[in-house]
Predict the 3D structure of the following.
Amino acid sequence: MAEARAPRQNPEERIQAQAPSVDAPGSAQDIEALVDAHQNGLIRYAYRLLQSRELAQDVVQDAFVRYLCEPLDYGEPRQRTAWLYKVTHNLCIDLLKRESKRGEIYDRLEHAGVARLPVVEILATERWERLERLLEGLSDNQRVVTLLFFQEGLSYKEISKVTGLSMSNVGMLLHRGLKKLRCAIGEEDKTEF
């Protein structure tokens, strides 16, 4: 018995059949939707770690390029969001590790004539400047967890995926960080009067 052959497709039909669907991870629409939805938040987060708008933009661009090269197979948008934050976080940490101290990054940027974006331009309030000062009093992990939770609105589970910390550790760091902030605010208020 002869087997039935599938009808021959012209080259355009074969390309169409092999192309990812419009909403598939890695499709142009998927990438565009992810960039539109998360680029600003990722840049804000990277900026908080690096204190340089241009470095933050470069790191976020690298994160999107990595996603483009290897799109995630699972389709939950929150999983892709957590993945993007984790990659951005890791790229920032790698950049900071390559430099022996944060100060070297700032010095290099200032000598190159690259202006840092003032915090005032980001949120344009004195309160944020005060909070920024207070956040500097937290440990690096407490600051990262606090920013991801309050500024980016990530859940404990998503923060855990981004930072590699356990969910209970995320909760503990957030609790202790907020307690430390409350105490610092109370101390600052006492000295003003």
Summary: DSSP finds ten helices and no strands in the chain. Residues 120-193 form a domain with the Arc Repressor Mutant, subunit A fold (CATH 1.10.10.10). The two ends are 97 Å apart (CA to CA). Confidence is low (pLDDT under 50) at residues 14-22, 112-117, 119-124.
